[in-house]
Amino acid sequence: MKQGVNRQMKQITIRQRKKNAVTGIVFGAIALIFGAILAVTGMFFYIDASVEAKKSQARETAFDPWETGSSAQESYKVVNAIGLTYDFAVDFKETYHYYFAFDEEGHSAIVKMKGDLAPEYQPLIDFMFGDETMEMPEPVAVRGVATVIEDDIREFAIEYMNELYDEEFLNEDNFEDYLGLALLDTTAKPVGHANYSFGQVFLGLGFAFLAIGLLLLIFNIQGHKAAVAAEEKEKVLLSQMSTYSSDAPSPITGETPDLQTVIDRNPPQTQENEFQKIMEAPEAEKKGNMLLGFIGAVGGSLVGVALWLVISLVGFIAGIAGFVMLKFALLGYQKLSGKLDKKGAIISLFVAAFMVFGANVLDFVVSICKAYFQFEASFDTVRFVVVNFLDLMTEYDMWRGFWVNLVIGYGLSIWSSFSLIGSILRYKET
């Protein structure tokens, strides 16, 4: 009787798993469709912005240093320079350089350029600093957009211009009279009224929903297959049970013997029959995919990394997020691998431990970026910080804080996950 109840409960569980898997597949398909719609919409906005930007970049007007330098510039601004100074200012990454350019009428403008100076500009410098017998070079068209002059660039410009003319004639009061409000930024392009932000937002959301939909489909298709396989196994099992229960009634009691009684009557050498093999090969014994499990563990632990960064941003030590890393690493391994065995649990534990270190590195990368964003908030700044992370940590004497934070992080992670880690190490496969 008890065995029959267990069989019914297992069948109900299998049906529920199939139902959940089908629901997940439906939601995955909906997410894929929604993501595709968002991505297509984003592409439309992005193409529209690109067309608008190209129209603006096909036009040229003379640079006016007294314009406000708005972002919606509908043409390139041009200075036909015959003279160029050496750079008087360089950004903190030594990427952008600032020069004075002079046109044929003697008007000067501040010019921002990226990287080393192109060879075509060398004659302009030679003419500027050569002897008076040098012939005037052919004008070079310097193109860019008008950008408001920042305060630190104003200070460097005042100091350099006074040194260049060997007199203190330029100051904060008359700066705009001589040099205007804007500089010529050759590192940027005019985009007119093009707005790439809508396209980027919709594309980002679209790809996010596509990824979510794809993951839902992978997880639930695997779950559905596993449920179907379990259902087929149950059918074979029930078939075997019906075969055994067809034994003749007992001549003494007149009752049909139950399954266990029939098995007990069989001699020892017949115990390892097909039915027994099925009973000894439950679904949990199927092999898991270690590679997919590892990917799932990494993906799951990223949830804890995100939590670590969020907690750190509000000013707290984020080691408690290590528990979340381990928990989601185990969940991710199980979902993608199809089975969480001791090997998978150990892999997840090592992944979570590595992610604690990675989260601490990202924490300090974000801290340095926040400091540098005061000077320039851009992707280029982030790239600079990442590429030069080791040197910047040494330069600003941040290694002590890094290791202290890491030790505390590991300590809190172990403390919050102690029982979970113990369960992993004591886990025995059945």
Characterize the structure shown.
The chain has 14 helices and seven strands. The chain is of the alpha+beta class and 430 residues long. It has a five-stranded mixed beta barrel. A hairpin with a 5-residue loop joins β3 (89-90) and β4. α1 packs antiparallel against α5 (196-244), α8 runs parallel beside α10 and α10 (342-372) crosses α11 (379-387). The radius of gyration is 35 Å and the shape is elongated. The chain starts with a helix and ends with a helix. Mean pLDDT is 79; it is low at 265-285.
Strand and helix map with partners:
Blueprint lengths: L1 H56 L2 E3 L13 E9 L4 E2 L5 E8 L4 E7 L7 H8 L10 E9 L2 H15 L9 H5 L2 E4 L10 H49 L14 H7 L8 H6 L10 H24 L7 H17 L4 H31 L6 H9 L1 H7 L3 H18 L1 H9 L4
Parallel strand pairs: 1-2, 5-7
Antiparallel strand pairs: 2-4, 2-6, 3-4, 4-5, 6-7
Q: Can you give the helix content as a percent range?
A: 55-70%
Shape: elongated
How far apart the termini lie comes to 25 Å
Could you give the order of the helices and strands?
HEEEEEHEHHEHHHHHHHHHH
Rg result = 35 Å
Low-pLDDT runs: 265-285
Quote the beta fraction: 5-15%
User: What topology, given as strand order, has the largest sheet?
Assistant: 2-4-5-7-6
Largest sheet: 5 strands, mixed, barrel
Number of helices: 14
Number of strands: 7
Chain-averaged pLDDT: 79
Structural class: alpha+beta
What's the quick description here?
The protein has about 425 residues and is an alpha+beta fold. It has helices spanning about 1-55, 120-130, 150-165, 175-180, 195-245, 260-265, 275-280, 290-315, 320-335, 340-370, 380-385, 390-395, 400-415, 420-425; strands at about 60, 75-85, 90, 95-105, 110-115, 140-150, 180-185.
